[in-house]
Amino acid sequence: MNTIPEIKKNMEAKMDQSIAAFKVNLSKIRTGRASPGALDTVHVDYYGSSVPISQVANVSLLDARTLSVQPWEKGMGPKIEKAIRDSDLGLNPASMGDLIRVPMPLMSEERRKEMTKIVRHEGESAKIAVRNLRRDANDHVKKLVKDKSVSEDDQKRSEADIQKITDRHIADIDQLVHAKEQDILAV
């Protein structure tokens, strides 16, 4: 049987995981600037296996709007270029010897607004996950009261603590959403 501190610790750890997953999702959403993470979802055929570009090439920034992809093996250039072109990212890579330049197109105002909606939706999903964890923790505490393991006063105190932890995580999510929106809308 869990104790109230164990329930709170477990809930907080899961909320931290939810926020970490949310940050990963945010990093995949494109802003106006180039980011090496933009190609994380692109896979290339490498000796019969589909692997992320980062496992067959070095992806870095040339400037604010251009990525450079440096394949580690000679014959991979054309395959990587094709994988980037065929991806749903709308990118048009250009080969310069061994180096592949990937210019990031400017985002239209309409596309920026669309991206902020996606960010808000991701934020809302993360908040729902956090609230579900709060509900589960409160249910566990209620079960302890029902089993007469803890008093109702302990339940009230723990529910207040659980709410504080939840509020802090929701505020973190709001802050991340706001920062990402600023990043997207900055021209």
From TrEMBL:
Keyword terms, alphabetized: Cytoplasm, Protein biosynthesis
Short name of any one Pfam family annotated for the protein: RRF
Domain Ribosome recycling factor: 22-185
Gene Ontology BP annotations: cytoplasmic translational termination
Presence of the UniProt keyword Membrane in the record: no
Entry GO MF terms: ribosomal large subunit binding
Keyword Protein biosynthesis on entry: yes
One cellular component (GO) term of this entry: cytosol
Top-level taxon: Bacteria
Stored CDD domains: RRF
Reported function: Responsible for the release of ribosomes from messenger RNA at the termination of protein biosynthesis. May increase the efficiency of translation by recycling ribosomes from one round of translation to another.
Family statement drawn from the similarity comment of this UniProt entry: Belongs to the RRF family.
Record-given protein name: Ribosome-recycling factor
Organism this protein belongs to: Caenimonas koreensis DSM 17982
Record lineage: Bacteria, Pseudomonadati, Pseudomonadota, Betaproteobacteria, Burkholderiales
